[in-house]
Amino acid sequence: MSENRIPLAAVVGSPVAHSRSPVLHRYWLRKYGIRGFYIPMDIAADDLAEVFKSLPKQGFVGVNVTIPHKERVLELADLVTDRAALMGAANTIIFRRDGKVHADNTDGYGFIENLRQGAPDWNPKAGPAAVIGAGGAARAVIASLLDCGVSEVRLANRTRGRADALRTEFGSRVTVFDWVAAGNAIDGAATVVNASSLGMTGKPPFRVPLDGLSPKAVVTDLVYVPLKTPLLETAERIGCTTVDGLGMLLHQAVPAFERWFGIRPEVDEGVRAAVLGP
Ligand code: NAP
Question: Beta strand pairing status for 241-243 and 37-42?
């Protein structure tokens, strides 16, 4: 491969037209004056292995992976980071110069970096964390909260079995609450996370009772459409520190961009505005 080859990257999924990743990476490519391209690629599950084989030969330095390929790509990788193995899913692929395919998962990293940037005084050890939801995103959130030293994660999910499975996986620092008692999980929690799709435009509203929400809590919502969800609005009214979910999307992209294009990009108002734009 020629040294002057223009680096290419993509988001691979199906469907993929809704993804904000091209806008995000293109903004950084322009900002840092990098001669590279980032495109959306709608690839069917049956074609994934073949496409993966050919991408590096075409000049791709890596890809983001989204639904429905996040789990399957682990089988196509030569190297899987510990955090991707723990998640059972990858969102970032690096096609290394030595031909090896490297799979990583930066969702948990993005979640924590967003909290740290949006709530600089956030202290993971200040008290229990409440997590609503037990899907793929919740798994990354729980793993990263425990990794930061949170002593107890209170978990509530509509389907109790999914929450119980995460408790089995992550151990006794996770406590499961029945869905009807989800408000009790939030009661007095120092960190509150909505990791369900509730409150997202087009989805049912977030109706977990917030009577016990402490004004000292740091509250974040993974949902970022709308940017200010009803959960964040209520939390703000109560006096909590709130952090919206857009920053998680931006921060999870930082390690990928750095590995592919050689510059660690900044998450600032400019990139937020670009991603929120039309
Ligand atoms: P997922 O695996 O499909 O999980 C969806 C979660 O929402 C499950 O816990 C599900 O509960 C719950 N849920 C859905 N409909 C519900 C309802 N009507 N009542 C109660 N609970 C309901 O999705 P995911 O990948 O974890 O994503 C969850 C949310 O996080 C999505 O809105 C996604 O857009 C957002 N997200 C944001 C970022 C970011 O960068 N900000 C990153 C990843 C995800 P059940 O188990 O009972 O179905």
Answer: unpaired
The pLDDT tens digits of the residues spanning 48-79 come to 999 999 999 999 999 999 989 999 999 999 99
Q: Write b or e for each residue in 129-143: b if 16 or more Cβ atoms lie within 10 A of its Cβ, otherwise e.
A: bbbbbbbbbbbbbbb
pLDDT cut 90: percent of the chain above it:
95
Is residue 150 within 6 Å of ligand 1 at its C-beta?
A: no
CA distance 150 to 169: 16
pTM of the complete model = 0.95
Identify the sign of the CA torsion 48, 49, 51, 56. positive
How remote is the CA of residue 176 from the centroid of ligand 1, in Å?
17
Q: How far is the CA of 195 from the centre of ligand 1 (A)?
A: 6
Q: Which two tokens stand for residue 228?
A: 């200010």
- Other C-beta atoms lying within 10 Å of the C-beta of residue 261: 21
pLDDT of 122:
98
Q: Is the CB of 166 under 6 A from ligand 1?
A: no
Nearest to 143 by CA among 210, 195, 75, 219: 195
Q: How many C-beta neighbours within 10 Å does residue 31 have?
A: 15
**Using CA atoms, how far apart are residues 243 and 227, in angstroms rounded to an integer?**
10
pLDDT in tens, 25-50: 999 999 999 999 999 999 999 999 99
Q: Domains for the chain: give ranges and CATH numbers.
A: 8-105+249-276 (3.40.50.10860), 108-244 (3.40.50.720)
